[in-house]
Design a protein that fits this description.
single chain; mainly alpha; 82% helix
Length: 541
């Protein structure tokens, strides 16, 4: 297999694994929402947000840096150095795991009571804390295997992790509920699924590590060179990884902020019970639904990042401009129809998946703002691809400050919608700063003169989708409610996507001559539709 084929295969494995893991993570929230009340939902949300924040700080960026360092040393025929780098990373992972676990476990009561103001969430946070013992090491092992060009290990471990997490969370929550425990302990049981997930993932990585060691012995590769000081290795690792860590904080930090401030900011306005309910809806329902649109858009757009990195390294400005434009265009064009469909059908989605219809507006509003999350993540990836991780880091820090300030300003005026609006503003600010920096390096245009056609497409698809949703929910009068909501979701989803795709072609947003540049799945979708394009568009291409 050629290097190119191997790289493509590895990218596909990681993309599929990430997609499966993300979907399983979202699926877990639906049955838990039915089992938990507002306090339980809020507790589970807070525990996950705190955990993901600390996990990002402990690991994000280091695995990709480790992958790069290991790959370079093997390419230079220095396997002993590569092993020493891996050894150093595992030592750091062990120390970070212990520190983060202790911090999370013993800090949980204070944070839950005095910061988030949901004392019941302390047990859920503590139940999840032991997962941090293993996850830093798992992350380092995944990075090392990627550096050795073995993507299967990390991909399979992600899937096993999520399966173990979901089954344990739902199963344990159900058992505790049947035994008569209150929501505090049911939420803690659900959180404990993360611990079983970490054990499953670690077992998979140990299996692959054992296989790799046998292979290395057969090839007579030397062991780690212990004469290389760890201090120099850590200096290299942190120099490269800290900007990536901070760039990766945007979404976990926003969710952590929301879990920390929603109840304190809203209790004085609407009362403690309603503030807890708003946090429960935001964390369990809205964030789950709003997590769907970025999946495909980010997978497709970031698949172009290695090509962008290569073009930047070759200083091929024309190719770089083309690929940056394409990455941005794919992120927006593929994310928007999912945002529209879920946003306009939020009421039906809520009725189909969850235990009540409360909070449909929160789901819709957060979902519509997801388009800015997509553009933020895409532009962050582009900046990383062209070696500007520090700029991305600075912009994320600015965005988080904007998020905090806007939340405190808007919450008294608009309640939970002010907090959600501050999230969209945060992502938009980061996007605009990123685009400004990218344009200083490479000239590109996302849609250029096609913005009007794109906006007309969005308005038409949203308007028709909303009308169909309003008509569909009337079916609850004649057929069972969930069946009516299911039918409405399917109709709205199909209608929005079809209308959106057709109008992109009719308004000339997508053109025949550009199709060859798009990923193959998108080419297959758009080729049959090209006959609908106006003749002048086909001629201009």
């Amino acid at each position: 297999m050629s290097k190119k084929e191997s790289f493509i295969k590895g990218t596909i494995i990681l993309a599929v694994a990430a997609l499966v893991a993300r979907v399983l993570g979202l699926v877990q929230r639906v049955p838990l929402e039915h089992m938990l009340n507002d306090v339980g939902d809020a507790s589970f949300t807070i525990a996950n947000n705190v955990y993901l924040m600390l996990l990002t700080v402990a690991t994000a960026g280091i695995p990709s840096t480790l992958s790069k360092m290991v790959s370079e040393r093997h390419a230079l025929n220095k396997p002993a150095e590569a092993q020493r780098v891996y050894q150093a990373a595992l030592i750091f992972a062990g120390a970070a795991g212990v520190v983060m676990t202790l911090l999370l476990y013993f800090g949980a009561p204070y944070y839950a009571t005095h910061v988030a103001e949901v004392p019941e969430s302390a047990a859920a946070i503590q139940a999840l804390a032991p997962a941090l013992l293993l996850f830093p090491a798992i992350a380092m092992m995944r990075g090392y295997f990627q550096g050795r060009n073995n993507m299967s290990a990390g991909g399979i471990s992600q899937i096993v992790e999520q399966i173990a997490r979901v089954l344990t969370a739902i199963g344990l929550a159900y058992v505790l509920l049947r035994l008569g425990y209150d929501d505090t302990w049911v939420a803690a049981g659900a959180s404990f699924g993360g611990v079983l997930g970490s054990i499953g993932a670690f077992a998979v990585m140990l299996y692959f590590a054992s296989k790799l060691r046998r292979s290395d012995r057969e090839q007579k590769l030397p062991p780690a060179d212990r004469s290389i000081p760890l201090g120099g290795i850590y200096k290299d690792i942190f120099k490269l990884s800290i900007p990536i860590v901070l760039s990766s904080l945007a979404v976990p930090a926003v969710n952590f902020i929301d879990g920390s401030i929603v109840k304190p900011l809203l209790t004085g306005e609407i009362g403690a019970a309603q503030a807890t309910e708003a946090l429960a809806v935001l964390g369990t329902r809205a964030q789950s639904v709003a997590g769907i649109p970025p999946i495909l858009a980010i997978a497709l757009s970031t698949s172009l990042i290695p090509i962008i990195s290569a073009a930047f390294a070759r200083r091929d400005q024309e190719h770089l401009e083309r690929q940056v434009t394409l990455a941005m265009r794919i992120g927006i064009l593929t994310g928007m129809p999912v945002v529209i469909a879920l946003g306009v059908a939020a009421y039906s989605v809520n009725g189909l998946l969850f235990s009540s219809l409360g909070g449909s507006g929160i789901i819709a509003f957060l979902t519509f703002g997801t388009i800015f999350q997509i553009t933020m993540m895409t532009t962050n990836s582009i900046l990383l691809g062209i070696g500007k991780a520090k700029l991305s880091m600075i912009h994320v820090m600015i965005g988080i400050v904007v998020k905090l300030a806007a939340s405190f300003l808007l919450a008294p005026l608009f309640g939970i919608y002010g907090i959600i609006g501050s999230t969209a503003l945060c992502f938009l600010v980061i996007t605009l700063l990123n685009i400004r920096s990218i344009k200083s390096i490479v000239s590109f245009s996302i849609l250029g003169s096609r913005w009007l056609g794109f906006l007309c497409t969005v308005v038409a698809a949203a308007g028709i989708g909303y009308g169909l949703n309003q008509a569909g929910i009337q079916l609850v009068e004649v057929i069972p409610a969930r069946l009516a909501f299911l039918f409405t979701c399917i109709i709205v989803g199909i209608a929005v996507v079809v209308i959106y795709l057709v109008l992109l072609v009719v308004f000339g947003v997508i053109r025949q001559s550009e199709l060859g540049n798009y990923p193959r799945p998108l080419q297959k979708v758009f080729r049959p539709l090209m006959r609908l394009a106006p003749s002048r568009m086909r001629e201009r291409g």
